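Supplementary Note 3. Input sequence used for the single-chain structure prediction.
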Amino acid sequence: MAYRTLTLCALLLISACSPSNSEKSPPPKLFADQRDALDKAKTVGATEQKHSEEQQKAVDEQTK
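The predicted structure, written as discrete structure tokens, is reproduced below.
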């Protein structure tokens, strides 16, 4: 009887830990606006860094 109980508990544990079909579906569209804003902010940051590097290069060339 204990063997059957142990086996049943093990099967329940394995089935609870196994990936379900819902994990294979695409993520929900929650916070899409916030993600878009974050992506835009990342591109602005990269553009700003490039611009500051160009300004630093121009300053370095003028000081030579």
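The CA atoms of residues 35 and 41 lie 10 Å apart. The chain has three helices and no strands.
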